[in-house]
Amino acid sequence: MSTTVTFPEEYKGDVRLIVAASGILSARELEITGETYDATSLAAEIAKGTYSAVETVTAFCKRAAICQQLCNALTEICFAEAIEKAKKLDDHFNTTGRTVGPLHGLPMTFKECFHVKGYDASNGYISRCFEPSTTTTPVIQVVEKAGAVVIAKTNVPQTMLVAECENNVFGRTKNPVVSHLSCGGSSGGEGALSAFRGNALGIGTDVGGSIRLPAAFNGVYGYKPSIGILPFIGYAASGWTGVNTGIPAVLGPLAHSIRDMKLLTETVRATQPWLFDPAVIPGAMEQQPPAAKEKPIVGILTQSGVTPHPPVLRAIASAKSKLEAAGFETRDFTPHAPSFSAIREISAQLFTVDGASYPRRELAKAGEPVVSSVVKFGFWDMPRKTHEEMWAWNTRKGEMQKRMLDAWQVLGIDVLVCPAAPHAAISPEETTKELYTVVWNAVDYPAIIMPFTKVDPAIDLKNDAFEPKDELDKKIQALYDPELMAGAPVSLQLVAPRLQDAALLRYAEDLDKVLNGGD
Amino acid sequence: MSTTVTFPEEYKGDVRLIVAASGILSARELEITGETYDATSLAAEIAKGTYSAVETVTAFCKRAAICQQLCNALTEICFAEAIEKAKKLDDHFNTTGRTVGPLHGLPMTFKECFHVKGYDASNGYISRCFEPSTTTTPVIQVVEKAGAVVIAKTNVPQTMLVAECENNVFGRTKNPVVSHLSCGGSSGGEGALSAFRGNALGIGTDVGGSIRLPAAFNGVYGYKPSIGILPFIGYAASGWTGVNTGIPAVLGPLAHSIRDMKLLTETVRATQPWLFDPAVIPGAMEQQPPAAKEKPIVGILTQSGVTPHPPVLRAIASAKSKLEAAGFETRDFTPHAPSFSAIREISAQLFTVDGASYPRRELAKAGEPVVSSVVKFGFWDMPRKTHEEMWAWNTRKGEMQKRMLDAWQVLGIDVLVCPAAPHAAISPEETTKELYTVVWNAVDYPAIIMPFTKVDPAIDLKNDAFEPKDELDKKIQALYDPELMAGAPVSLQLVAPRLQDAALLRYAEDLDKVLNGGD
């Protein structure tokens, strides 16, 4: 039996189909890593003794290895160490009859920007290679204590500030669902690996959509918490700290179900992370008024600024109908929402206050070139701002936060359904920065990506009567190509007000049942 | 009867004694404004019908007017309008038998930097005079709705970034307790007026000690909440917004008791201010683990970096003994605390990232000179920083936040007693920036000032054997002059971890009973 999978260059489809065909995983390993389980139910089986930690970790390592060959999603690989750790978990379980914690035996991956002692955290910069981390990021220590096993770290774009996934150290990651399309970014490796089911649970980071776009483009769940929910201390930065630019990054899960994201979040919060990370807010999820409503009022935002492509418009309309049919009251948020275009511009200016001085410095150290996907995204050449200009942009951001808060109050909605981007997964280097994600970083509202449908060329026809509002609208609409994008996941973004994370996770479970028929 | 009080230039003592002697207030007005009541008990009397809102407001307006003549504490004066509003409150009360809210009839004042529609918010800048505000700051709207009556705004220093209280528009405010000493700042007008009992309750702001130093220097209570507790939106800025410098300002009460600060805070929080101010944290006080302990473990910090003057050292030692005698466990925090000197330096650098470009611009508009107290304080000539330098300082701040959190965990303390400053009220322009307040802004811990004792030349002798640690320590110790400072209030600062505001207010009430014999 060969252990190498050759990826046919002409292959245009769902590369995940190769897993079963390859013969590398046993039937039992296919079962462990397959659709039967999410992390929650898999952990329950491990806790019952159905599967050992070693066989679970081994199965996912094999699948992750195949993903690596087909999609190039991994950076640092810890398979051997992971299996050793799994043995210890099994020893504990066999001796005591108990798990070490709620994540016992679950194989996890982390975005490249986290530290795992003994492995690089280069973030794809040549200058940082072969400098192993001397510490492990606290959130990883927390999940390890709860029984999770780190099997690998995953790929990121150069600069970590674009929604692609390419750098000079690790190359480009591919989308496993439609392999010629972008996997998104910056947590692109996580998104691809999760869709490939190469992990049970993964962690990415998000300052403008970096968890949510890979989740959306690869068709998995993703959750960007409010600032202060999950502990972010001790990661490997790839830019100046967000507190200064006014839009801090957060970490959060990419997963196979809403309840898996809840499991991860509640497991971490149960350790009282405010006792080791000064930025974490005590009590923010545990006790929070107002409590989640039995039946939330659902806002629907179809577009703001940039017109979404036909499959995205269909997804929003279909979600609205299904929710109404299930007895949810919906209210149209589009006319009330503050201008997303304005918030995108403010955010872009704030992300580039330094004129990209940090990544330029990192690249200069090794004399490496900037990659084309970073230049094309549009942040790279934005000018450096003075303090006074930065403060003016931050003042505008504050005004937008107020307008957003007021709009939610006026409309009286509890949760919002909106696009993640104006398009589904698109050709690499074509991902626009005119996204529907960055707005929620700018106002610090928690947001969840929920897979919902796929691009279907038979029904998602090009709109030949499209009347663009401006050049940008025209340009982005012109990117729609139903044949090219056929089969690409189309996801919904669910949003709740700042720090209403507990309510959002509850609402998302309810909406998922209605929209995806889960139970 | 004369209505003008002449302030004798040679007078060196407690100018509040002049109030009763002046004959301007009736016996009943002296009772209303006197030591008999704090805001909580006064509101209870008004609610019982003992005093009308009009006579309460009139009494405080008279007293505030005397304070203005003796101490120059006020900026904008709204007495006539206040009495009109009080009439409406009385009408409501007489008609319905009910108060409009928990602050019914309480005369309040606000620091100059808040907007009251129809009155200037110049912050002492000549260029901003005669431009009345067109809106009222939301927190004022909230307290007015709860029945409070705004009678005046109060003085601030030019730039609002020094612990003095002098500007070219309104002049300098004096300390009513020992009138030749500084009233502190930047909420200096509030501190002086509160000590004079010219209001029932006041609101200041604090980015480095601006509520706490005036409270300490004038011998009243003051509370700097954590960021996100009280709504700060819609005030009149006097510098670039704090989010960019990494140390945002907050507002909070100066008051005559801990329970008054609790009354104000709970009244505002009850309106769910997160529904109108995006920066307010929902649930942060209402439901917060861990709940306050029955008997907190009390940390004692005597000094860090700068050695406090003898009366301050006596106050800390005496508080420790009294708390131990009352059965509280105390633990010495000084050897565990991260260096306050380092945090002071980081904060000073962050406050001046713009090289004071904002106040320089404001002064230039009217061609007015910077006042000497601003120059002497030491921030004025600090150099402008690059983005990269600012980020480096913010990174150091983050490290200090982590060290502070760890130190509290290691020592296992719930609340900390420490100095407010190395000295009590001092000669104007001598207040040092080597304070014990700014550290709690840098790490965002809530802090309360509690009056405790007074400088007593008979026991607080100069320490002739003092061995300075460095030039700064020598310089500051040399400022101690027992005869000059005789009678100056010496206060304690009580601190709890970030967002443990509810617990801090509870602990402060308990400690106040032990230390000040309150009930």
From TrEMBL, chains A, B:
Record carries keyword Aminoacyl-tRNA synthetase: no
Amidase domain boundaries: 55-505
Keyword terms of this UniProt record: Hydrolase
UniProt entry tagged with the keyword Chaperone: no
Organism domain of life: Eukaryota
Family under the similarity heading: Belongs to the amidase family.
Protein name (Swiss-Prot/TrEMBL): Amidase signature domain-containing protein
Organism in which the protein naturally occurs: Aspergillus pseudoustus
Organism ancestry: Eukaryota, Fungi, Dikarya, Ascomycota, Pezizomycotina
